[in-house]
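Q: Please design a sequence for this.
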């Protein structure tokens, strides 16, 4: 949906709105019109002539949330934008020009095409995630191996991930726990890559993961210290 003129008027002085409207109506004072899209946001940019004509030009940009019908952000290289609060006349002109004639902006896509593209990307993400989860369930279980050492009265532990094709040292407990929280697909090397979900781990590895996650949460991100253990398991977050 277009951003209502009232929304634009609300963000600038009456004088800026009046002058911006005149610039937008003239049309020829706005060059190199471009638009790109980021979800519901339309990001506009153009060169806008000054009141004296093309002897002075300013680079203006405006971001519009077309779903909500609001102005999200605006910027301009003109002195007025830097010195006064609110939208300058160049940003006003840019927003109004897009409302009046969006097809004049390079990169413009009708809402129907944008919606289709977003839906396609969303479906692709779902399919990829589902496929990754299925691969995780059929590619074998990943185990967590723990090696304890005692030196000079202090205990330490190191962790390794063991899969069907190989074993890799866990370099960061924090990274591993983060991957599990996000359910991310991650490759440790050509012989071990999996989706970090509980189904990918052996029952023992799941218990170790839960314990490590609790330790990280309890310590609120404090450094564990090079996978050291002293009366309990700790590691480098």
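A: Design:
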């Amino acid at each position: 949906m277009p951003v209502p003129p009232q929304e634009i008027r609300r963000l600038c002085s009456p004088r800026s709105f009046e002058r911006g409207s005149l610039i937008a109506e003239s049309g020829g004072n706005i060059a190199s019109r471009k638009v790109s899209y980021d979800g519901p946001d339309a990001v506009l940019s153009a060169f806008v002539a000054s009141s004296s004509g093309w002897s002075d030009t300013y680079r203006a940009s405006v971001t519009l949330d077309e779903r909500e019908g609001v102005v999200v952000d605006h910027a301009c290289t003109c002195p007025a934008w830097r010195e006064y609060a609110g939208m300058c006349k160049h940003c006003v002109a840019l927003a109004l020009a897009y409302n009046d004639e969006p097809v004049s902006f390079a990169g413009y896509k009708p809402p129907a095409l944008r919606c289709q593209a977003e839906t396609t990307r969303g479906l692709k993400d779902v399919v990829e995630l589902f496929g990754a989860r299925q691969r995780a369930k059929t590619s074998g279980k990943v185990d967590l191996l723990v090696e304890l050492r005692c030196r000079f009265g202090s205990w330490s532990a190191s962790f390794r991930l063991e899969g069907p094709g190989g074993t890799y040292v866990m370099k960061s407990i924090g990274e591993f726990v983060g991957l599990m929280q996000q359910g991310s697909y991650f490759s440790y090397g050509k012989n071990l890559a999996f989706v970090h979900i509980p189904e990918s781990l052996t029952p023992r590895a799941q218990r170790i993961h839960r314990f490590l996650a609790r330790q990280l949460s309890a310590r609120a991100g404090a450094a564990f210290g090079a996978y050291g253990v002293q009366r309990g398991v700790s590691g480098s977050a």
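Q: Thanks. Anything notable?
A: The chain has two domains: 5-111, 136-219. Residues 5-111 form one domain.
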